[in-house]
Amino acid sequence: MGLIFSGVQPTGNLHLGNYLGAIRNWARLQGEFECIYCLVDLHAITVPQDPAELTRSTREAAAGLIASGIDPEGSVVFNQSQVPQHAELTWIFNCIARLGWLNRMTQFKEKAGKHRENATVGLYDYPILMAADILAYKATHVPVGEDQKQHLELSRDIAQAFNSMFEVDFFPLPEPQIFGGATRVMSLRDGSKKMSKSEPSDFSRINMTDEADAIAQKIRKAKTDPLPLPETVAEMEERPEARNLIGIYAALADEEPEATLTRFAGKGFGDFKSELADLAVSTFGPIGSEMKRLMDEPDEIDAVLRRGAERARAMAEPVVREAQDIVGFLRP
After folding, report:
1. What secondary structure does DSSP assign to 179-193, as a single string?
2. What is the pLDDT of residues 80-106, one digit of tens each?
3. Which of 111, 138, 223, 292 is flagged as catalytic?
4. Of 61, 77, 86, 268, which shows the fewest CB atoms inside 10 Å?
């Protein structure tokens, strides 16, 4: 059995895109892999955070994972800052990775924008910390989206460079875990843009904490086009809003888009949205209810994260200690 490592930013407002694109699939991996799921609060502070909000959103993200079916007794669920081995291994990797490798990271360029000189060193070094996250556990597989593939390649490069520099076969080269069932969920207000917590309109997304009425209302108000629903997947290509809503229905129903089209082809969006709203409320609504229950019990969440951090430290400590021995650090 391989070892999965994946992380989620604890920056609040988890939404349907996070669930269908990643979290639901993480829950499904639990039977196939040993799984470690990390709330990456060290990564979060590479950009300014309000301290109280970071604490709250870390608990919220943990509640979202648990409510979505991730079992904290089977999988390891913790927040990154509670396991010092992540930071310790990052420094070793800082002394192995090359500036040229980091200069090629496109995500830094996108996040730093025109004010690159004002970006934090942490934001620049973000991919090195990600490599340490993965390799501190000798993870073999990492679920990644398109925006993280380059970072995973860097993790492989760093593992290979460490092994080569010290003439050891110590770190594995982690493989991307590709989901056949991952769904790219777009904005309900613009089918050409990814659903995002940063979009100003709350009607652009379905939050994991939305009540049933809010879920139904957002789907009813979702942008569509004037034509009936298409009959084939090919017809959806030029109709981003139709493609998005059909994709959401298919994902929630756990079926292929072709099956959804067969059921609704030629119908108007009014009837379709009504059925989509019912499906979303029945499948997604209970997750929000459980999240809220957990958020009302912060001690329960904190206990889960504390136990997860203890298990994570027990796994990472011998790996990082051996890496330090390989480097030549004296530990009297």
Report:
1. -SS---PBPSS-TTS
2. 999 999 999 999 999 999 999 998 887
3. 111
4. 268
